[in-house]
Write a structure and sequence with these properties.
It is a single chain. Strand 6 and strand 7 (246-255) form a beta hairpin. This protein has two domains: 2-84; 102-332, BirA Bifunctional Protein, domain 2 (2-Layer Sandwich). It is built from eleven helices and nine strands. The protein is of the alpha+beta class. Helix 1 packs antiparallel against helix 2 (22-33), helix 2 (22-33) packs antiparallel against helix 4 (51-90) and helix 3 runs antiparallel to helix 4 (51-90). It has a seven-stranded mixed beta sheet with strand order 1-4-5-9-8-7-6, with helices on both faces. It has a two-stranded antiparallel sheet with strand order 2-3. The protein binds 3,4-dihydroxyphenylalanine. 3,4-dihydroxyphenylalanine binds at residues 163, 165, 205, 243, 246, 277-279, 300-302.
Length: 335
């Protein structure tokens, strides 16, 4: 037993010496101390040993496992500092290190949170057709709801998607039910620009389809999401809303974090920001996606990612986000 444990340790050290990148170390790590490693096998065989053997080998096996883990972790750490030093050494002139765009950071954060709740990230085309952007969402031609969104129509009878909601139906067609998806993406509206309106911005669509889904599930997901994003309990309010693709529909507002609810241009002096509209998916939309509304139901929401980034980083003019002005965006160097 002692011999085997020693040789495991020695082999681990030998293999680590050949590792140049983090990925190599992680492979060795999983081979030697991962779930299916020999040391784990030995460890789990402990329970079948005689009391005498347990006494004899128990702590030896456990200590060896800990030692092996320490060896790998120390190696990883030294590799990382070494890489950092090498990198710093090559930077002997003054360069600007890039930063991530605030919307990119928020999108990653939100999708990471939703992924933990079992959502899959999917995407759809930015140039879409009337069927997915409108008709399948229960907004027929000539319906007044088409005017809720000022659309850029293209010469090829397509359009620039006005929201990420069109991916709801595409996803239902492709994956069927049950379904739990989120769709971060860029959308376009023919808007007059001001501090809170842009013609190009980002949304995140969320949709859950299953049996017996209720509005409570939706509220639970929203609260959890906002708490994690803002790292604090944020004041929210629900108002009844109208969207052709949800019934009932509602608007979730959060208190304006830029002015603390006092009123500013971003919140149009109301102290509240409309952040997450949503509701229960309309049976017609389920049908359009080929899902039986007698058996399944669900909720959907459309989060304004751009707006969320503005709230989170206290950016009071939306136009700067698309300006590409690095000097300004650098102020939000978060990572
Ligand atoms: N698509 C809507 C918009 O852009 C937002 C939205 C509202 C999405 C309600 C939803 C929803 O999924 O249920 O204004």
């Amino acid at each position: 037993m002692e011999e085997e444990l020693n040789s495991l340790k020695e082999n681990l050290e030998k293999e680590l010496k050949n590792c140049e990148k983090e990925a190599d170390v992680l492979n060795v790590k999983s081979k030697y101390v991962g779930k299916k490693s020999r040391i784990m096998e030995i460890l789990s065989s402990l329970k079948d040993m005689t009391v005498e053997d347990k006494r004899k080998y128990g702590s030896l096996i456990n200590n060896t496992k800990k030692e092996m883990e320490n060896i790998v972790n120390n190696f990883l750490e030294s590799l990382n500092t070494q890489l950092k030093i090498d990198f710093d050494d090559t930077l002997d002139f003054d360069v600007n290190v890039g930063s991530m765009h605030p919307v990119t950071i928020v999108a990653k954060e939100v999708t990471d949170i939703l992924k933990k709740m079992g959502f899959t990230i999917v995407s759809g085309p930015e140039m879409d057709n009337e069927f997915y952007n409108f008709e399948a969402l229960n907004i027929p031609k000539d319906h007044p709801a088409r005017d809720m969104q000022d659309t850029f129509y293209l010469d090829n009878s397509m359009l620039l998607r006005t929201h990420t909601s069109g991916v709801q139906v595409r996803a239902m067609e492709k994956y069927g039910a049950p379904l739990r998806i989120c769709v971060p993406g860029r959308v376009f509206r023919n808007e007059d620009l001001d501090a809170s309106h842009e013609n190009t911005f980002f949304q995140l669509e969320g949709m859950v389809i299953d049996e017996n889904i209720s509005i409570e599930n939706l509220i639970g997901v929203m609260q959890e999401l906002l708490r994690e994003v803002f790292h604090q309990d944020v004041l929210v309010r629900l108002r009844p809303g109208f969207f052709p693709f949800t019934e009932p529909s509602y608007e979730l507002d959060c208190s304006c974090l830029i002015c603390g609810g006092k009123g500013c241009p971003t919140c149009k002096n109301s102290g509240w920001i409309e952040l997450i509209p949503g509701g229960m998916v309309h049976p017609n939309v389920l049908r359009a996606g080929g899902i039986d509304p007698e058996k399944y139901n669900g909720f959907a929401f459309g989060l304004g990612l751009t707006r969320l980034a503005m709230m989170k980083y206290k950016i009071n003019d939306i136009r700067v986000l698309n300006s590409g002005d690095i000097r300004y965006l650098e102020n939000f160097k978060i990572n």
